[in-house]
Amino acid sequence: MTHGQFPYIRGRRLRASGAIRDMVAEHNLKPADFIAPVFVMEGENEKVEIPSMPDYYRYTLDLLLEEVQELKNVGIRSLVIFAKVPKNKKDNKGTEALNSEGLMQRAVRAIKEQFPEMLVMTDIAMDPYSSYGHDGIVEDGKILNDESVEVLTKMAVSHAEAGADMVAPSDMMDGRIGSMRQALDEQGFNHTGIMAYSAKYASAYYGPFRDALDSAPGFGDKKTYQMDPANVQEAIKEAQLDEQEGADIVMVKPGLPYMDVIRAVKENVSVPVSVYNVSGEYAMLKAAAEKGWLDEEQVMVETLVGFKRAGADLIATYFAKAASKILKNKL
Ligand code: PBG
Question: CA-CA 20 to 30 A from 215: which of 42, 207, 261, 327?
Fold first, then answer.
């Protein structure tokens, strides 16, 4: 057999057309991969754009239901709800978080009633309810662990009662997954799942989100509970612990600066891995696109497929709707 001219192995043959590229693509994005974060606030018939998150809104519940319809129309099957709590309802113990008539609980009920097939997740953390903007009860400038886990566990049960399909604890207190799993099971919610924010870093990329919910810490930072950006081995430990405690899905957060963490976690757990493409990542791309410095659609899709390549099975992203529209038009 004679070979043609060097080089006889040519990688470019598999890149020659859209048809062949799509055929050999190792990873594919689909709207069902996405969890769309939604922000709800009190009131009616109002939506407010979040200044540091262009094109992203906080909705009153009536308008949120219309938005959920739009998400559904582009093929999105899952969302995670965040509630903006009025200042006068915040206290150190996050009391309002347990109110069965609270905004979060009402939002879950309304969405599940109108869209029973939508997979509804709720964020479990005290910061939007805390007068200190922390994810736990504060005493002498410290964040108490076990006392906070008690509140967080009740919060998970309250969301399950409202009809949440999964609860998503984002607080990083020790032992909360086991505590929630036990309480959910004891109270008849053994079908309610837990998506654990397992490797959640103390990140400056959450800034725009805290604008959206008015939930920035009133003093100090979150470094005594959220993880140090320098660590990856610790992420594996946290994810494995959460898996052992009963998490159905584990999460790495933020996304882009932690691609290696997604891969490491993926290789060390047997539950699905999700990633949270956080508010600051959204804001960076939006700002660069507004200036005409980056192509928003292309960078968005490149980023999202990058998460899947890194090992993420699902992606929480503020680009869920925009990306789903692009994917839909491609088919
Ligand atoms: C609540 C919570 C935060 C985010 C999700 N849940 C903020 C924080 O921990 O300070 C951040 C999401 C984002 O930035 O998009 N604990």
Answer: 261
Is residue 196 pLDDT above 90, yes or no?
Answer: yes
Say which amino acid occupies 232.
V
Do 318 and 39 contact (CB within 8 A), yes or no?
no
| Buried residues in 254-292 as b, exposed as e (16+ CB within 10 A) | bbbebbebbbbbbebbebebbbbbbbbbbbebbeebeee
Partnered with residue 129 across adjacent β-strands are none
* Cβ count within 10 A of residue 213: 20
Q: Which of 99, 63, 61, 55 is nearest to 82 (CA)?
A: 61
| Backbone phi and psi for residue 75, each to the nearest 5 degrees, phi listed first | 100, 5
CA of 279 to the centre of ligand 1 (A): 8
2 band by pLDDT with thresholds 50, 70 and 90 = low
| Residue 135 Cβ contacting ligand 1 at under 6 Å | yes
CATH number at residue 123: 3.20.20.70
Check: complex ipTM more than 0.90: yes
- 14 in any annotated domain: no
Does some domain include residue 11?
Answer: no
Residues marked as catalytic: 200, 253
Q: Which residues pair with 207 in a beta bridge?
A: none
- Counted domains in the chain: 1
Q: Mind listing the pLDDT tens digit for each residue in 125-181?
A: 999 999 999 999 999 999 999 999 999 999 999 999 999 999 999 999 999 999 999
In a domain, 15, yes or no: no
d(C-alpha 280, C-alpha 190), whole Å: 35
Cβ of 209 below 6 Å from ligand 1: yes
